TrEMBL record:
This is Cytochrome P450. It comes from the Bacteria. SUPFAM superfamilies: Cytochrome P450. It comes from Actinoplanes aureus. GO terms for molecular function: heme binding; iron ion binding; monooxygenase activity; oxidoreductase activity, acting on paired donors, with incorporation or reduction of molecular oxygen. PANTHER family: CYTOCHROME P450 YJIB-RELATED, P450, PUTATIVE (EUROFUNG)-RELATED.
Length: 383
């Protein structure tokens, strides 16, 4: 099947759902060319996406691809993480992570997450307006994941800046992303060496010590995992908080339901690429072995066959969204993301009940990425 260009534009970044709706209805497994030229298959129906997330014939290991995927490139020391591993390696590392990333550890963060949220909002007291991305949704997850992992406070702003440059480099500077990756790699090696020499009660120290049946993380696995946890613990949560707040500002009087907000506006509407290990039928179309498959949860979460009134915000509806994935790659940080979303949104709504948008919603700027659903800024009048 010939690929067609994915219609990405400012209009798409602002509201991709009409495109998703059309694909889901007309071509639920569609071959498209991404803006970087990569030919991929987009899968958009809920039933197909959910089934494929648990299908072992779809691999996340890039060695099973046919070489046409041009996605983000990382050095081996940052690439040996859970997002690039199938079982049994994935199973082994996930068990090691689970020893350190426990529900009890996450829940123990609740008072500290609340303190961070309160302190950020204290700094806004007395101001007429604020940017709830730059002033609140951005710094809160950075502080939380950094404290969990044991990143010194003095380094957190730098890490956020490096991450932003890596994901969306400045126009006209093709080497900026590679420089940011190199800087992050060097920083993580130095940080892990410090934790190894002087262990503390943080997650990185626990991961260094974690072992399962005499096994432990290799150096590359440890560095890659630290990178993944920092990146995922920051990037997606920032966008979930920002878009969640926007959704509520556009739907005044609607109770905050983190699960429904995640269904309605997933921060990562397109999940990690996968490669069939054999020819596979998807929605009546044969996808050849090794070609790239992208599962579009932004479309699946608004499938009317799975959710009644999917384009409406309905707090309290039964969960079942796919924003955290499904199957063995279900997001290991989901409990932390839920905790942060609950506290971040609930606190700002209590502190500023009269808050409203400072500009018309159609003037808001969105991140120029089809993989990420996030606001550049969220200007509000605090009221």
């Amino acid at each position: 099947m010939a690929a067609v260009p994915l219609p990405v534009s400012e209009t798409f970044f602002r509201d991709p759902y009409p495109v998703y709706d059309r694909l889901r209805t007309e071509a639920p497994a569609c071959r498209v060319d991404l803006p970087d030229g990569s030919p991929v298959w987009l899968v958009t129906r809920y039933a197909d996406v959910r089934a494929l997330l648990a299908d072992t014939r779809l691999s996340v290991d890039k060695r099973n691809g046919d070489g046409s995927w041009r996605g983000f490139s990382l050095p081996p020391a940052l690439d040996a993480n859970l997002l690039n591993m199938d079982a049994p390696d994935h199973t082994r590392i996930r068990k090691l992570v689970a020893q350190a990333f426990t529900p009890r550890r996450v829940e123990s963060l609740r008072p500290r997450v609340q303190q961070i949220a309160d302190a950020l909002l204290d700094a806004l007291a007395g101001r007429a307006e604020a940017d709830l991305v730059g002033d609140y949704a951005g710094p809160l997850p950075v502080a939380v994941i950094s404290e969990l992992l044991g990143v010194p406070e003095a380094d957190r702003h730098d890490f956020r800046s490096w991450t932003d440059t890596m994901l969306i480099p400045p126009r006209g500077d093709r080497a900026a992303a590679a420089r940011a990756v190199g800087t992050i790699h060097a920083y993580l090696e130095k940080l892990l060496a410090a934790k190894r020499a002087d262990p503390a009660g943080d997650l990185l120290s626990a991961l260094i010590a974690a072992r399962e049946g005499g096994d432990r993380l290799s150096e590359d696995e440890l560095t890659s995992l630290a990178f993944l946890l920092l990146l995922a613990g920051y990037e997606n949560t920032v966008h979930a908080i920002g878009t969640g707040l926007l959704t509520l500002l556009r739907n005044p009087g609607v109770p905050a339901d983190p699960e429904e907000l995640l269904r309605y506006e997933p921060p990562a509407p397109v999940l990690l690429r996968r490669f069939p290990t054999e020819d596979i039928d998807i929605a009546g179309v044969t996808v050849p072995r090794g070609e790239t498959v992208l599962l579009v949860v932004g479309a699946a979460n608004r499938d009317p066959d799975a959710f009644a009134g999917p384009g409406e915000v309905t707090p309290g509806r039964a969960s079942g969204h796919l924003s955290f994935g499904h199957g063995i790659h279900y997001c290991v940080g989901a409990p932390l993301a839920r905790l942060e979303l609950e506290i971040a949104i609930g606190t700002v709504r209590r502190r500023f009940p009269g808050m409203r948008l400072a500009v018309p919603a159609d003037e808001l700027r969105w991140r120029p990425s089809f993989r990420v659903r996030g606001l550049v800024a969220l200007p509000v009048v605090l009221g």
